[in-house]
């Protein structure tokens, strides 16, 4: 059974991991798709705003064309090298003015987005009579070739559009054509937040579904483990009761056999001793059956005979009686409350307290302390012992019916695992609660809490 549960857990964990991985993959794919969609949107919007340079500022654009013409003419005349042209183009005088104009246009047309951009020069090619070509400059997009813009790096930017421009240059009756190619890169500030907002629904939904699945899995697993423990406890109870019944039954059987002997019947002393044994074992059997019957009632079926009592005086009387019945045990009181009047059922509560006190003795204690306290509207009775204690992992089942820490076929101490179950039922019937604080080898402290 344990192996099957472990196997089930292992399979379920693997299934959960696979499911979470698939979910992560789907979220990542959606994210990539949303990023691509966002880039396309920005490209389209920017495309509509700045189809070409003349849309931005025609005066600056004509100045730019004049510069390109001038540089080209100088080059044809041999006054300029290719490197001079590149330098001249990149260090143009209207660089800042054009950058500002484009920025202002973005702010006006796309007020909801904060956009940084860079226009980089890729190509500067001269054609003579559309045949002979002279490549003055041709490089991949590179931030060092920035013509305009405020971006410092192209790392997180994406390509929006390429601008291809042609300028006609005539020198000494020769027709030249200048072809230039620039690329615009943009980076939208906080674009991650924009994508995240667009994905919020999908993210929340997948997180919710995965966490629901995990919660359901944990609940199912806990129920399974609890069920297994309860079934173990019931098997232990059957073992315990069989064990408890065996001794009196065996003694009764032997006693009847002895009584069959005539000489025993004739000796009054022996006869009486056997009758006493039979009576004792009969009582023991009766007691066992009573114990099982008494605990068959649920907390809401217990009928309480409540009355107003002085709780400290009531506790003192129980302690006194216990002291007389257990002369070898030291029992002390430490009451931090006085004359607390509670409405309780004396009979059931006496049995519950005695169960805890008898357990203390049964499980190795010789010093017991009964304490009371009132905090706010809570009255507490604690019974502290110095016995064998209970390990932390066993404490959650302590108040379950038939549960015994000593499990299986170990029977060092007698018991049916009903004492604490009864205590729990009685205290709950009083709308109170029971708690235990203990460590293995360091004694135990049982506390009953009642509303004042
Ligand atoms: P039982 O008939 O076994 O005593 P109880 O319901 O009274 O049944 O107690 C349940 C189990 O709790 C016991 O089997 C014992 O292992 C543990 N227990 C109860 N009281 C104490 C205690 N004072 N010290 C250590 N263990 C205790």
Q: CATH-wise, what's the superfamily of the largest domain? A: Histidine kinase-like ATPase, C-terminal domain
Number of strands: 12
Uncertain segments: none
Coarse shape: rod-shaped
* Percentage of β-strand residues: 15-25%
- The whole-number mean of residue pLDDT values reads 87
Instruction: List all distinct small molecules, including ions and cofactors, that are bound in this structure.
Output: adenosine-5'-diphosphate
- Calculate the terminal CA-CA distance, rounded to whole Å: 47 Å
Please describe what this structure looks like.
Strand 4 and strand 5 (174-188) form a beta hairpin. The protein has 3 domains: 50-190, no CATH class; 200-294, Helix Hairpins; 301-451, Histidine kinase-like ATPase, C-terminal domain (Heat Shock Protein 90). It is α+β, with helices and mostly antiparallel strands and 452 residues long. The protein has 10 helices and 12 strands. The structure holds adenosine-5'-diphosphate. Adenosine-5'-diphosphate (ADP) is lined by residues 355, 359-360, 362-363, 385, 387-390, 398, 403-406, 415-421, 444.
């Amino acid at each position: 059974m344990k192996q099957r549960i472990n196997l089930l857990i292992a399979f379920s964990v693997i299934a959960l991991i696979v499911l979470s991985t698939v979910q992560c993959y789907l979220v990542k794919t959606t994210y990539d798709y949303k990023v691509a969609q966002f880039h396309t949107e920005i490209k389209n919007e920017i495309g509509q705003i700045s189809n070409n340079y003349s849309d931005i500022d025609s005066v600056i654009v004509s100045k730019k064309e004049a510069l390109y013409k001038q540089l080209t003419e100088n080059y044809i005349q041999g006054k300029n090298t290719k490197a001079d042209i590149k330098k001249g183009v990149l260090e143009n005088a209207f660089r800042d003015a054009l950058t500002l104009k484009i920025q202002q246009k973005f702010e006006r047309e796309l007020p909801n987005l904060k956009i940084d951009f860079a226009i980089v020069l890729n190509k500067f090619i001269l054609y003579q009579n559309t045949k002979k070509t002279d490549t003055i400059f041709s490089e991949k997009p590179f931030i060092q070739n920035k013509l305009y813009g405020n971006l410092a790096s192209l790392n997180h930017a994406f390509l929006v559009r390429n601008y291809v421009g042609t300028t006609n240059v005539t020198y000494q009756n020769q027709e030249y054509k200048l072809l230039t190619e620039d690329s615009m890169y943009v980076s939208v500030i906080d674009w991650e937040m924009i994508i995240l907002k667009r994905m919020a629904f999908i993210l929340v939904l997948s997180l919710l579904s995965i966490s629901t699945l995990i919660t359901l899995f944990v609940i199912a697993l806990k129920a399974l483990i609890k069920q297994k423990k309860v079934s173990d406890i019931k098997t232990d109870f059957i073992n315990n009761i069989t064990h408890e019944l065996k001794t009196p039954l065996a003694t009764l059987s032997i006693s009847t056999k002895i009584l069959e002997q005539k000489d025993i019947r004739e000796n009054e002393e022996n006869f009486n001793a056997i009758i006493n044994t039979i009576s004792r074992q009969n009582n023991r059997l009766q007691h066992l059956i009573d114990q099982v019957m008494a605990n068959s009632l649920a907390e809401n079926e217990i009928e309480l005979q409540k009355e107003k009592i002085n709780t400290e005086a009531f506790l003192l009387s129980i302690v006194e009686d216990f002291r007389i019945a257990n002369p070898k045990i030291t029992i002390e009181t430490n009451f931090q409350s006085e004359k607390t009047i509670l409405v309780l059922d004396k009979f059931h509560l006496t049995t519950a307290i005695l169960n805890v006190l008898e357990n203390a003795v049964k499980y190795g204690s010789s010093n017991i302390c009964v304490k009371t306290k009132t905090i706010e509207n809570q009255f507490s009775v604690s019974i502290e012992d110095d016995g064998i204690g209970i390990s932390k992992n066993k404490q959650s089942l302590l108040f379950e019916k038939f549960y015994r820490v000593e499990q299986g076929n170990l029977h060092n101490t007698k018991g049916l695992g009903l004492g604490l179950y009864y205590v729990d039922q009685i205290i709950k019937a009083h709308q109170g609660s029971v708690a235990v604080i203990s460590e293995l080898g360091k004694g135990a402290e049982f506390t009953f809490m009642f509303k004042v």
